[in-house]
Amino acid sequence: xxxxxxxxxxxxxxxxxxxxxxxxxxxxxxxxxxxxxxxxxxxxxxxxxxxxxxxxxxxxxxxxxxxxxxxxxxxxxxxxxxxxxxxxxxxxxxxxxxxxxxxxxxxxxxxxxxxxxxxxxxxxxxxxxxxxxxxxxxxxxxxxxxxxxxxxxxxxxxxxxxxxxxxxxxxxxxxxxxxxxxxxxxxxxxxxxxxxxxxxxxxxxxxxxxxxxxxxxxxxxxxxxxxxxxxxxxxxxxxxxxxxxxxxxxxxxxxxxxxxxxxxxxxxxxxxxxxxxxxxxxxxxxxxxxxxxxxxxxxxxxxxxxxxxxxxxxxxxxxxxxxxxxxxxxxxxxxxxxxxxxxxxxxxxxxxxxxxxxxxxxxxxxxxxxxxxxxxxxxxxxxxxxxxxxxxxxxxxxxxxxxxxxxxxxxxxxxxxxxxxxxxxxxxxxxxxxxxxxxxxxxxxxxxxxxxxxxxxxxxxxxxxxxxxxxxxxxxxxxxxxxxxxxxxxxxxxxxxxxxxxxxxxxxxxxxxxxxxxxxxxxxxxxxxxxxxxxxxxx
Length: 539
Known about the structure:
Layout: E1 6-10, H1 14-24, E2 30-34, H2 37-47, E3 51-55, H3 63-71, E4 81-85, H4 90-99, E5 103-106, H5 111-134, H6 145-154, E6 158-165, H7 168-175, H8 177-194, E7 203-208, E8 211-217, H9 225-241, E9 243-246, E10 249-252, E11 255-261, H10 266-279, E12 284-286, H11 287-313, E13 317-326, E14 331-342, E15 348-349, H12 355-360, H13 364-379, E16 385-390, H14 392-396, H15 398-410, H16 412-415, E17 418-422, H17 431-442, E18 447-453, H18 460-466, E19 470-473, H19 475-478, H20 485-501, E20 504-507, H21 513-522, E21 526-527
Parallel strand pairs: 1-2, 1-3, 3-4, 4-5, 11-12, 14-16, 16-17, 17-18, 18-19, 19-20, 20-21
Antiparallel strand pairs: 6-8, 6-11, 7-8, 9-10, 13-14, 13-21, 14-15
């Protein structure tokens, strides 16, 4: 059954209150009474009426002051207040409107007008209450993102500070969702005690899990960037210095902060800034400064996606081949297949500029299929081994997997000259995927290499798990080995371990004779880099 709406009748004369009650008796409202403004304020807080019918002239506290007092309370900002008055002076009505009265009913009132106005404003109150419910965060009872977006539109010169409990998702996993909810609720209660004096008037919002906002309308006050930074830093330090006590445990928290002003997209800018704070080293970011850069990067990404798609459509995904030099036989024995794309202006584009974008744009595995086709064809034009890079995305893609197995079954004479280099990325998060793939393709005599060993995910345990034929030592360890004794010691350790388990080694980024001589002293099996030769279109 739908809840009945309520009306509070405020008048110092009992006969007037009785007349209104009789008029509204059959309309199905809960009808409450107050005899003066002070009692009206008290009963409003107690009963939370949907509509208030307010007399203008009353002893103790008149209807104007009562309206003003009721309107000062946040929960009554939207409650309809109708003044029933015999006053006809324009100034009196303006005063009532300024204090928060929504409408007037003249004395003596007309029954049908009273019923119609009460019905109209009661329905409005119902809508307002539904809005209030939808604009509250149920965990903290603070206004939510929806309320924030509405309030921003009402501001003349708004500044928004968006902040999030640092590592919120990690806290959820570590402590449990229930505990983190309590931490969040306690934090929400103390935020205003932690904010600096110059933003005490800001309204606090709870915009999402672990995320809050402070909105302040500076109106005619000039916003000074250095002062905002100082305020945010003070706020952040205040949060860092407090502890939240729950069930005899003390929890320390920190916050990341992003702020924005002087833009119509206040919340959107702040969200972009906050995401950058969470990824980077800075704990506070002025969002306006980075959004332009973000937009430029987005435009570049869109342009590159178009270039990638065009290259795929027009067979402009090509492979360049870089030789691997056998340091013992002094011959080139292998080539690594390295992808390039050709744009509409016939420029050759390196994977540095497009592979990450291709992953985000869902074109990565399509590029891999082209590289596989190029590389398999290249095997027909050489007696050397061809090395092909594969990532987790490739191995998990059913079409790529099927393409590899189909070729191996149809070209068993070539299979032993294929080397699959397992790239250093999310590949090693699930070793079962890798070991299953390795086991399947090794049946055809395919060789396995671990790329970029010594950086990222690579470690000696994986050598044992995956039992590769080749280790490619990461270029970051090789490129300055002639200047960095620590790097040399690491490379020597890798080479020693590889020798003991019977695995061949490749040094990448061999760019000079000096580096080439050092890796030969260490005993590395193969050299790859510009000192040997650059990647070329040779097949």
